Amino acid sequence: MMRRLFYFAGKGFRSVRDSPGISLLTAGTVGATLFVAGLYVMALQNLEGLALIWGRTATLTAYIDDAVPPEGREPLRARLEAFEQVEHAVLVSPIEALERFKARGASAAALVEGVSEEILPASIELQLEGGFADLTAVEKLALQTRELPGVTDVDYGQQELERLQTLLDLLRMGGLIAGILIAIATAFIVSNTIRLTVYARRDEIIILRLVGATNGFIRTPYLFEGLIWGLAGGGASALMMWLADVSLAPQISIAVANVVGGLNIHLFNLEVAGILVVAGVFLGVFGSGLAVGRFIDQETS
Question: Which domain range does residue 112 map to?
Answer without folding.
Answer: 59-155
